[in-house]
Amino acid sequence: MEYVFEHFKLSNTKQPIVLHDTKIDYKTESTVNWHRNIEIFLGKSGKGMVMIDADRFEIGEGDIFVVNSCSLHDIKTDGNLDFYCLIIDPDFCAENDINVEDIVFERRIDDDVVRNLFSNIVREYKSDYEYKYAGIRSAVLSLVLHLARYHTEDKTKEKKRVSGKVLENMRIAIGYIKTHYTENITIDMVCKEAGLSKYHFAREFKRIIGVTPVNYINSLRIEKAKKMLLSGECSICEVQEKCGFDNASYFTALFRKVTGMTPTVFLKNKQ
Asked: 3-state DSSP call for residue 134?
């Protein structure tokens, strides 16, 4: 069975991270994903909600969260939220004798040392210093080493939170949806792929992901539609079809529900 998950291909092998300085608001659409890399959020301003596997945490200024390798995760806000998102190459860590794929880090961390180490990474990343990439690698390794020494959990504790089998079922389901959401897929098809009954799947998906399977699929489709409309390469009708909608009226109604405007108005506002 093929698993599909988010993959971060580093554009520069000297730089073992992806660092995003991110701003989101209540209109920002996001979807749950997972990947091999560990991911670290550092709140800058505003308030939001971090989802890691089946748990939710409030994030604000100075708050730090670590997403372990292959953990389902998402971040949302009802207002405005500014945060750093740091994604670290697990192969770089393994080459330095820290196998982050086998370590369970604490998810919520309150440690000024970690904040300072994170700030060092940001400073090196944004700098034009001589030996910049050496500085980035050194700063990243210092952060990961500190986390590995002082902020880990027993694996059995993680397994008690949510059944590993259930999380694996959700990863399979999300992988299948992200591969086929532009097609005419049904919930029955997703359930079959995940190996769960329709009732059990719907209940567990809503509990862990936070939305129904249908809403999750529609969210992916509308985000795809927005990007295609902005590219200017397709007509509204073509976008509708390529995003998995076989009914124009339903597409327009759902697009308006999610974005607050019809596809036509959306295009006019962005021109």
From this structure: helix
DSSP class per residue in 80-113: EEEEEEEEE-HHHHHHTT--TTS--B-SEE--HH
In whole angstroms, give the CA distance from residue 7 to residue 60: 27
Tokens of 152: 């880990």
Cα gap 32→181, rounded to integer Å: 14
Please name the amino acid found at residue 52: I
Total residue count of the chain as it appears in this document: 271
**pLDDT tens readout for residues 195-244:** 889 988 998 898 888 889 999 999 999 999 999 999 988 999 999 999 99
Pairwise CA distance, residues 204 & 194, whole Å: 12
pTM of the model: 0.73
End-to-end C-alpha distance for the chain, whole angstroms? 43
Whether the CB-CB separation of 104 and 158 falls below 8 Å is answered with yes
CA distance 101 to 148: 12
- Specify whether the CB–CB gap between 61 and 42 falls below 8 A: no
Distance between CA atoms of residues 58 and 77, nearest Å: 9
Write out residues in the chain with pLDDT < 70, as ranges: 1-13, 156-163, 271
What's the CA gap between 16 and 9, in Å, rounded?
A: 10
